[in-house]
Design goal:
26% helix; globular; single chain; alpha+beta; five-stranded mixed beta sheet; 754 residues; Alpha-Beta Plaits
């Protein structure tokens, strides 16, 4: 009896799987109420598996009663709402088995061999299930492909296969009706033999950077300047600290960091095989010994300060600090010592500093290591009190970098590719080794994230020894040219690379504007739905793990026809207000599609480590629409020096000038959340067209609120603003460029001093 019950749940006859194409009034609940076994659904389709003929007969009975018309005394047919919502009913076919991502990959002209995950229906009979896997394996081999691994978990009705298949034979394989789903997996850029036996001759020529390219300081374990991927870009190097007489890398960490800074995705650069010229030069200050630790006889904060100053003296405008003190995760409310030093030096030397959150250990926060943990770990990480950011990651002037994973599978560069090794998370998820914010005073930390790798889980154990799960870079030690690792210290140089690209393109931009443009380029990772609770609580969790998202070079340095970047540099009087008029393109008033505005602000206030109010002043910005500038000035003149910290988390409206009402455009995150830090980003996506009467003019109001700065002082700051429209609608850049210059600099419309 037990087997009979299980069979009715798991057993699926592929010939009885049907696709319902839905109309606009369809509801998935109608299918559940009809006692149908739903195996997949989207807005336009529902895939239903009829487990046996009697069930299909029951469906036909409902259909017959519907087509017979309304029974006597009733106005509508039985099951009318259910059947009226169905546009068509058809068998599940080959095209349904392919994911959109696989179809896209098949359309690429240069693609010849694909790495596939194949899921089969489970018939409920274990022996038959193995036969079905064998049938698919035979189809793969007949089509010129190869099977890497198979997995049968009969208890949950799961049949999986990992296979490599010629692209022109995939549709033939999709004809096999026992296949439920076929998905594309990314293939490593370097195949197994090349990755593990790469020789110097296999590396592409690395040209010396241009003599006027920006200089980036790397404070780490040193750099192996003899490595072909790194050496041509090394401008200077030195050892800092007691007992470190050799400036070369004796551990390997700094060399890998340097390769990521210079090349980004190292594997793709090698696979292309073309000469490459790094966009920056590097100066290397070695502060870590052969064990990747600070010398025991030194105050590490002193070595850190000396290294930052050394890098600055050698021309570094950006400094990558892929280091952290694992002994002291951040515990509010006071700033940590190394972070305070970094803040002071960043401000006094006029540099951009990039720091990681530091690494956590999943074993410290996971209740158990199992298959379920690969999907639930972010909640455990967020809720763990010991997973705070490491010093100096709470530096308020630095851009702090968290880690995300890009791995969709494991084993692609291993001798044996196993389906039993499950990656923790999905592409774009927080890496299980990242640390969570928020930062000092609940400021947004990390601000941005980048690829840091992930771990795998196999048989209740954490798996680290898999290049596909990690980040690949240059190896300093003899014996191989590449290595891999997992950590936010490898995410930081990828963000430093974006900052270097900004400086290379705009060498005169000051550090605050470089930070603002890196922030502005970040692409949000929508992860809040994975957390329970109120919207504000979910948004806080997302900011704590992923910040504002993942930055990119293209979005940081280039306007496009549908995305225009505006910038402003200025200095504001303490307790002062600046008002900027934001041009609104006519396409914002057109019907359909999406449009929006992203605003980033960066400033470098004086800081004091022993003050609870660590920053000398706060800054904030508000977006106002449909008021004359005189009305805006009148409202904000009334809140001279007022700290708006008392505003609720979900309310962008200042607490006093309630008359603004609908004239305030609500940005995400809220004013309260973003104004606690020195690197701020606010976004607004308009789902509907703007009303010219309500939404113009549009003003950006920037305020300074003094805490302990000297009255009469001025606070320098930078703004970067992106106005964007989806590419299916009219462009906006040419219209705005006709009014202003590009990169378009915004002048202050009016300044209010008190």
């Amino acid at each position: 009896m037990e087997f009979s019950q299980r069979s009715s749940v798991l057993g699926i006859d592929p010939k009885l799987v049907l696709v319902f194409d839905l109309g606009p009034t369809a509801s998935i609940e109608d299918f559940r109420r009809a006692d149908l076994q739903i195996v997949d659904s989207s807005e336009k389709q529902v895939v239903v598996a009829f487990a046996d003929d009697p069930e299909l007969a029951a469906f036909h009975e409902r259909l017959d009663s519907y087509t017979a018309g309304p029974p006597e005394g009733q106005k509508s047919e039985p099951h009318a709402s259910f059947f009226d919502a169905i546009d068509a009913l058809r068998p599940y076919g080959p095209d349904d088995r392919l994911t959109p991502e696989l179809k896209e990959a098949m359309s690429q002209p240069l693609t010849d061999r694909l790495r596939l995950d194949i899921e089969c229906w489970h018939p409920g009979d274990n022996s038959l299930a193995i036969e079905w896997l064998g049938e698919v394996a035979a189809g793969v081999e007949e089509g010129g492909g190869s099977v890497a691994d198979t997995l049968a978990q009969h208890g949950v009705g799961l049949l999986l296969m990992r296979a490599y298949m010629p692209v022109d034979r995939v549709m033939e394989l999709a004809q096999i009706d026992v296949i439920a789903r076929m998905d594309i997996l990314p293939s490593p850029a370097l195949p197994v033999p090349v990755f593990h036996s790469l020789s110097v001759e296999d590396l592409p020529p690395v040209l010396a950077p241009d003599s006027d390219s920006p200089i980036v300081g790397i404070i780490d374990s040193g750099v192996a300047s003899g490595h072909q991927l790194v050496g041509p870009a090394v401008f200077a190097s030195d050892a800092i600290g007691t007992g470190l007489s050799e400036d070369q890398d004796e551990h390997g960490h700094g060399t890998m960091v340097a390769s990521l800074l210079l090349h980004g995705d190292v594997q793709k650069v090698i696979a292309r095989g073309l000469p490459t010229r790094p966009l920056c030069r590097i100066v290397s200050a070695r502060v870590l010994d052969s064990d990747n630790q600070f010398p025991v006889d030194d105050l590490w904060e002193r070595d850190l300060a000396e290294a930052v100053e050394w890098c600055s003296r050698h021309g570094a405008k950006i400094i990558n600090l892929s280091i952290g003190d694992e002994r002291s995760p951040f515990a509010p409310p006071r700033q940590m010592s190394a972070a305070a030093i970094v803040d002071d030096l960043a401000r006094s030397l006029g540099i951009v500093t990039i720091v990681p959150t530091g690494n956590s250990r999943p074993a410290d926060y996971l209740p158990s290591v199992d298959e379920a943990a690969t999907q639930t770990y972010p909640v455990s990480l967020y809720g763990n009190g010991q997973s705070g950011i490491l010093d100096p990651g709470t530096s308020v002037l630095s851009l702090t970098v968290g880690g995300v994973t890009d791995a969709a599978a494991s084993g692609g560069q291993s001798a044996r590719e196993r389906l039993t090794t499950l990656p923790m998370g999905q592409p774009g998820w927080p890496s299980p080794i990242t640390r969570r914010g928020l930062g000092l005073g609940d400021s947004v930390k990390p601000e941005v994230v980048e690829h840091a790798g992930t771990l795998g889980v196999e048989n209740g154990q954490l798996v680290r020894s898999d290049p596909e799960l990690g980040v690949v870079g240059a190896r300093a030690e003899a014996g191989a040219l590449l290595t891999w690792g997992i950590g936010t210290s490898y995410a930081a140089p990828l963000v430093s690379r974006v900052a270097a690209a900004v400086v290379a393109r705009f060498p005169d931009f000051r550090p605050e504007l470089v930070r603002a443009l890196v922030l502005l380029s970040s692409d949000r990772v929508d992860f809040a739905e994975n957390f329970e609770g109120k919207p504000a609580d979910r948004a806080r969790a997302e900011l704590s793990l992923l910040g504002h998202g993942r930055p990119s070079i293209a979005r940081a340095i280039e306007s496009t026809s549908h995305r225009t970047i505006l910038v402003a540099n200025d200095e504001i009087p303490i307790n002062g207000v600046h008002v900027f008029e934001i041009p609104v393109a006519s396409t914002f008033f057109g019907r359909g599609g999406q449009r929006g505005i992203d605003i980033s602000l960066a400033f470098s206030p004086p800081t004091r480590v022993r003050r609870l109010d660590y920053m000398a002043s706060k800054m904030e910005f508000h977006l106002v629409r449909g008021l004359p500038v005189e009305g805006v000035v009148e409202v904000f003149s009334k809140i001279q020096g007022m700290d708006l910290e008392d505003a609720s988390d979900d309310d962008d409206t200042p607490p006093t000038p309630s008359q603004l009402g609908r004239h305030i455009i609500q940005l995400e995150p809220s004013t309260k959340a973003r104004s606690r830090g020195a690197n701020q980003l606010g976004r607004k996506k308009f789902g509907q067209r703007l009303d010219p009467d309500l939404d113009t003019p549009m003003f950006l109001v920037v305020r300074n609120v003094n805490r302990w700065d000297v009255e009469g002082n001025f606070q320098p700051y930078s703004l970067a603003i992106a106005l964007w429209r989806d590419e299916q609608h009219a462009e906006l850049h040419s219209e705005l460029a006709a009014q202003l210059e590009a990169v378009i600099e915004l002048p202050v419309e009016i300044e209010i001093e008190f």
